[in-house]
Every structure is written in structure tokens, then in C-alpha cells.
């Protein structure tokens, strides 16, 4: 049986790649995509999500969420993803395009979770604003959330500051609400996303694969120029999707995670390892297998789209 999931996202180049992998994964049933302000503003992240769903020929519903973090001002990452959020890439306009939901993302998530026969997995790959609002506004949803598999945080280090990863730094108050809940969380943070960087050779292997290979390689050529080191490219958000489709690639430890919300260390995810912690922190991965999975995933997407 496919796992029903909701992807909460701020596309974002790595978000686009992660969503594409999820929408074609045999193991997953993407019921809903919700957007949040993050890498770029909410209008752009929402437009990118809708354009992507249409580009891929899927009918997955998209709902627009929260523009601003709970308390802080939005800090974006347009220096990584470009002003539009997808570098210089332009999606073609589609006929019969998916129409954006008229309801707020949090309302759509609530309806879907409360009415789902199967517990739903949340996959947040942007700031946690929508998810925190959901848990506070509709606490009854908690009993039908299977787990939260998120990209964010780091047991060690940071990318937005020396001690904070971008998604958590962008809305630390929301992140604190989410991590303080006793829901099972899988944290795919910088510890594992940096480890699972792919190579420029991997990108070359997929660039000739029709429309999707062209899109992914073009996106990565823009992203690559700002974030890659020594020919390796970190597609952070893809880790959360691959954790769900290929969990055996990852290793980690149980912990509790305290989010710092104020001061110089704001956004830091202070990780206390303990056997009874409700957070599984991914710390290691089979890098070669991750890279093979990247290439084979996009070969399969290509075959399904154009084969
Ligand atoms: C995270 O921040 C964003 O820029 C990426 O999309 C990813 O979700 C990495 O720190
Ligand atoms: Ca993201």
C-alpha cells in the first residue's frame, strides 16, 4: 500500500526535485502539496508548485499557505534559488492546468488528515509555519498523523548561521512548536543532506532524459553555481523523500531536539541523544546508493512521462 503524504514546501530548486521524485514514487501517494513563504515569497513558491504539478501532468491539489513566519520577518534564500525560486528556469504554460485551492493550506491539511482512512505522513521541506499552525489550531489532527519526515535542522553546524539551518532559522518559533510535540519526527538535517551530495557526473547521466531530465539539469546548473563545492551538489529536500522510499539508505539515532528561538543562536536545533527520544536524527547514509537512487529515480520518471 502506498503511504499517504502531504508535502509542505517552499519551491525552491531542491524542493522541485524532491516533489518530482515523490509524485512518481511507487511507495507514495501525494495527497496534497501546501506552500509556505521561505526560499522566496509565498506568491512565487505557490506559482512554482502549481507550475510543477502541471508540467509533470499530475492533478495533485496545491493549497497556498502562510506568507510570513509566526513572529520573525521572512528571510529568504533567493541567493541560492534565484528571485523566482527556480533560478532562470521557466515552466511552459499548460492547458487544463491544476487550479489552486481556494482554501488556506492549513484548512486543506486539516480536512485531509481528519478524513483520511490511513494515518497521514507530513513531509515539510520548508519553514515549519504551516505545520505549527495546524498542530495548534487543530490538535485533533495529531492522532491521525503517522509521522513527520522533515528536512531541517542540524545536530551539528548550520548553513544560514554557523549554528542554524535555513528552514529552522526562518521560523524558529514554529519549529519549536513542532519539535516539542510528542509526534514521531524524522529529522533529515544538514548532517545527512551534506553527506548525500550528488556529483556533476550524476547530473550528466540524467540530463538527456526528456523534459524532466532537461528541467532537473537546468535547475541544478543554476543552483550548482551558488551552492556546490568541488563538483558536488546538495539536494537537501530530496533526503526527506528518499527516507520514505529507501529508508535503508539512512542511519541515525533517537534524540530530543530543543530549538533556540532568540539571540545569536536562534534556529539552532540542540540535539540530545536518548533512546526514548521521539525524534530520529539521520546522521549517516550510504552515499553511493543515494546517488544511484537519484539517477534511477529520474530514469523512472522519464519512462513514466514519455515512455
Ligand atoms: C533548506 O533550505 C532551503 O534553501 C532548501 O530548499 C532546503 O529546504 C536547506 O537548508
Ligand atoms: Ca525547501
Q: Main beta sheet, described?
A: 9 strands, mixed
Strand content: 15-25%
Helix content: 25-40%
Order of helices and strands: EHEHEHHEHEHHEHEHHEHEEEH
Shape: globular
Sequence of strands across the biggest β-sheet:
3-2-1-4-5-6-11-9-10
Question: Would you identify the regions where 5 or more consecutive residues have pLDDT less than 50?
Answer: none
Calculate Rg over CA atoms: 18 Å
Structural class designation: alpha/beta
Q: Would you tell me the overall average pLDDT?
A: 94
Query: How many distinct helices?
Result: 12
- Count of extended strands: 11
User: What distance separates the N and C termini?
Assistant: 24 Å
Bound ligands, named by name, code or SMILES: beta-D-ribofuranose, calcium ion
Structure, described:
This protein is of the alpha/beta class and 307 residues long. It has twelve helices and eleven strands. The protein has helices spanning 13-24, 42-55, 78-81, 105-115, 129-137, 166-170, 172-180, 190-193, 200-207, 210-227, 238-245, 287-306, and strands at residues 3-9, 28-35, 62-64, 120-124, 145-151, 185-188, 198-199, 232-233, 250-259, 269-273, 279-285. Strands 3-2-1-4-5-6-11-9-10 form a nine-stranded mixed beta sheet, sandwiched between helices. The mean pLDDT is 94. It binds beta-D-ribofuranose and calcium ion. Beta-D-ribofuranose (BDR) binds at residues 12, 14-15, 39, 77, 80, 125-126, 151, 159, 165-167, 236-237. The site of beta-D-ribofuranose has 15 residues, from helix 1 and helix 6.
Map the helices and strands:
Blueprint: E1 3-9, H1 13-24, E2 28-35, H2 42-55, E3 62-64, H3 78-81, H4 105-115, E4 120-124, H5 129-137, E5 145-151, H6 166-170, H7 172-180, E6 185-188, H8 190-193, E7 198-199, H9 200-207, H10 210-227, E8 232-233, H11 238-245, E9 250-259, E10 269-273, E11 279-285, H12 287-306
Parallel strand pairs: 1-2, 1-4, 2-3, 4-5, 5-6, 6-11
Antiparallel strand pairs: 7-8, 9-10, 9-11
The structure holds beta-D-ribofuranose and calcium ion.
Beta-D-ribofuranose (BDR) is lined by residues 12, 14-15, 39, 77, 80, 125-126, 151, 159, 165-167, 236-237.
Amino acid at each position: 500500500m502506498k503511504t499517504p503524504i502531504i508535502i509542505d514546501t517552499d519551491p525552491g530548486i531542491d524542493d522541485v526535485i524532491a516533489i518530482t521524485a515523490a509524485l512518481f514514487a511507487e511507495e507514495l501517494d501525494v495527497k496534497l502539496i501546501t506552500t509556505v513563504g521561505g526560499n522566496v515569497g509565498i506568491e512565487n513558491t505557490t506559482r512554482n508548485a502549481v507550475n510543477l504539478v502541471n508540467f509533470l501532468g499530475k492533478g495533485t491539489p496545491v493549497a497556498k499557505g502562510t506568507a510570513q513566519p509566526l513572529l520573525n520577518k521572512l528571510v529568504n534564500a533567493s541567493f541560492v534559488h534565484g528571485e523566482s525560486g527556480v533560478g532562470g528556469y521557466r515552466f511552459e504554460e499548460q492547458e487544463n492546468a491544476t487550479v489552486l485551492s481556494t482554501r488556506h493550506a492549513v484548512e486543506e491539511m486539516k480536512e485531509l488528515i481528519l478524513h483520511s482512512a490511513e494515518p497521514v505522513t507530513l513531509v515539510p521541506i520548508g519553514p515549519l509555519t504551516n505545520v505549527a499552525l495546524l498542530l495548534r489550531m487543530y490538535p485533533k489532527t495529531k492522532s491521525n498523523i503517522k509521522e513527520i519526515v522533515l528536512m531541517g535542522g542540524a545536530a551539528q553546524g548550520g548553513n544560514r548561521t554557523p549554528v542554524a539551518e535555513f528552514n529552522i532559522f526562518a521560523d524558529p518559533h514554529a519549529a519549536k512548536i513542532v519539535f516539542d510535540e510528542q509526534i514521531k519526527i524524522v529529522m533529515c538535517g544538514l548532517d545527512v543532506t551534506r553527506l548525500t551530495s550528488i556529483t556533476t557526473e550524476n547530473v550528466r547521466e540524467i540530463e538527456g532524459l526528456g523534459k524532466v531530465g532537461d528541467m532537473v539539469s537546468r535547475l541544478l546548473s543554476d543552483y550548482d553555481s551558488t551552492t556546490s563545492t568541488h563538483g558536488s551538489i546538495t539536494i537537501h529536500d530530496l533526503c526527506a523523500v528518499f527516507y520514505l522510499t529507501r529508508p535503508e539508505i539512512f542511519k541515525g539515532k533517537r534524540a530530543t531536539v530543543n530549538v533556540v528561538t532568540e539571540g545569536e543562536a536562534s534556529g539552532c536545533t540542540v540535539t540530545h541523544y536518548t533512546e526514548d527520544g521521539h525524534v530520529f536524527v539521520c546522521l549517516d547514509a550510504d552515499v553511493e546508493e543515494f546517488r544511484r537512487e537519484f539517477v534511477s529515480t529520474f530514469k523512472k520518471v522519464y519512462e513514466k512521462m514519455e515512455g
